[in-house]
Design goal:
CATH topology of the largest domain: Aminopeptidase
Number of helices: 9
Largest sheet: 6 strands, mixed
Strand content: 25-35%
Order of helices and strands: HEHEHEEEEHHEHEHHHEEEEEEEEE
Structural class: alpha/beta
Number of domains: 3
Distance between the termini: 64 Å
Strand order of the largest sheet: 2-1-3-8-6-7
């Protein structure tokens, strides 16, 4: 019993030390891993619109990564910068993560280019002559005769082609908060390649699979997430200084495997949209590639200074995470409200399904109900986003508000809202843009 108490006390002390030392433990940035997305047989996104450069994502990411590595090596000679690839070779996600873990990376930067579905248009390129046949009859009874008449007509000939995307800009991604368990697994699975941070009073030969170490590994996973947030915000800020449009810091709910499989802070940068005219040319130009590489380098230098000063704290970053990633509850108040419909509901509980209306063009929305956020930065598709709502008995009216995070490829942002109230079904078409929120009011009879 005494041994158990001694061990438990040691474990609690170690656990508390890591928590309290979170903002005080400096960590030298010794190794940076730069990953050029895709490669070899995996081309990634390809420029497909009419008049495109037919560029491939794998080539763009390699060019930017090479410039980034060169600038980092020049600006930060005391830091080892390692590329996952320097030629056009195929590497699956596991191989990229293995390289990062093998070299004991302190930061993983993954370079990608974005894309999306393209709309098809047509143009008339000529005409062709076709023969149409009509059938008629003369006479009656046994004297009835069938007559087929041919006539030639001119028909248009169309050429079909793909239109470029309207969306452009740079976005930064981190692994989603609910994927921390995957990061924890990456630490445990790559235990041999993991370095205990300085002053954590733990030896490097600890068994991360042991029950007593699981909470400590979880703390490291959380540290990595907070540092990833910090690095991502710095990249977004530096890119924005160049005048490029940025989309802030993002989390993909399904996860980003390469970020979750590395046992270090990790970010993925979607440098631009390869199927947007301006972005494709920017990503293929020396100016664009160098500008992006320099912006990322400046972010790394700022991140290095913060990390090595020990100023990254869970408290400060949690506040920044809320401000940068989660929309503030009141942000929709900056836009006017466009009340599109008032619906009388008979049941206290009702269902709302949200679809992209018309063409699926990349519309992204946040949805609020009575001022509280229910959906955060969700892309609308032909598949429903379902909300099960309850009318507030203390309110005469309940407000559902759709906030447009973008306007898609075809402005404005449009959504089809289907309300199911018992046996009653109501459809509402919602439009929202950078000036107006789309609003539906529900009143309980």
């Amino acid at each position: 019993m005494v041994k158990i108490k001694i061990f438990f006390s040691f474990f609690i002390c170690s656990f508390c030390f890591l928590l309290t030392g979170f903002s005080q433990t400096p960590k030298l940035l010794k190794t940076i891993i730069v990953d050029a997305g895709h490669g070899g047989s995996d081309a990634g996104a390809v420029g497909e619109y009419e008049g495109s450069l037919r560029s491939k994502e794998k080539d763009v990411t390699l060019a930017i990564s090479k410039k980034l590595v060169a600038i980092l090596q020049k600006e930060l000679p005391d830091v080892k910068t390692i590329p996952t690839r320097t030629t056009d070779i195929f590497q699956n996600v596991n191989e990229k993560a293995r390289i990062a873990n093998q070299y004991h990376g302190d930061l993983f930067i993954c370079i990608h280019a974005d894309s999306g579905p393209l709309k098809t248009a047509r143009r008339q390129i000529g005409t062709r002559q076709v023969t149409h046949y009509t059938t008629s009859y003369t006479g009656k009874g046994k004297r009835k005769k069938k007559k087929i008449t041919a006539r030639k007509v001119e028909e248009p000939v169309y050429q079909y082609y793909k239109l470029p995307m309207q969306r452009s800009g740079t976005s930064v991604w981190i692994f989603a908060s609910h994927k921390t368990s995957d990061k924890l697994k990456a630490i445990i699975d790559n235990e041999a390649d993991f370095n205990i941070e300085a002053d954590d009073s733990l030896s490097n030969n600890v068994d991360f699979n042991s029950p007593e170490m699981k909470p400590i590994v979880a703390i490291y996973a959380k540290r990595f997430q907070l540092k990833s947030i910090n690095m991502g915000m710095l990249v977004e800020e530096e890119v924005a200084k160049t005048g490029r449009k940025t989309f802030g810091l993002n989390q993909r709910q399904v996860g980003i495997r390469v970020l979750q499989s590395t046992n270090m802070p990790a970010i993925l940068i979607e440098t631009g949209f390869i199927n947007n005219v301006e972005d494709e040319r920017y990503l293929n130009s020396d100016k664009g590639q160098e500008e992006l590489a320099e912006s990322i380098t400046e972010a790394v230098k700022r991140y290095k200074a913060i990390v090595e000063s020990g100023k990254i704290s869970s408290t400060n970053l949690a506040k920044e995470e809320k401000e940068k990633i989660t929309p503030a509850e009141e942000k929709y108040t900056n836009r006017s409200k466009n009340i599109l419909k008032r619906i009388d509901i008979k049941q206290p509980n009702f269902k709302v399904d949200l679809y992209d209306d018309g063409d699926v063009d990349g519309d992204i929305v946040s949805v609020y109900y009575n001022g509280k956020i229910l959906l955060n930065n969700k892309k609308l598709t032909e598949k429903a986003l379902t909300l099960n709502l309850t009318a507030d008995p203390g309110r005469i009216e309940n407000e559902l508000l759709v906030y447009a995070e973008n306007e898609g490829d075809i402005p404005p942002n449009t959504a089809l809202l289907v309300v199911t109230d018992g046996n009653n079904r109501t459809e509402v078409r919602i439009t929202a843009d950078e000036k107006k929120n789309g609003v539906v009011i529900f009143s309980k009879k």
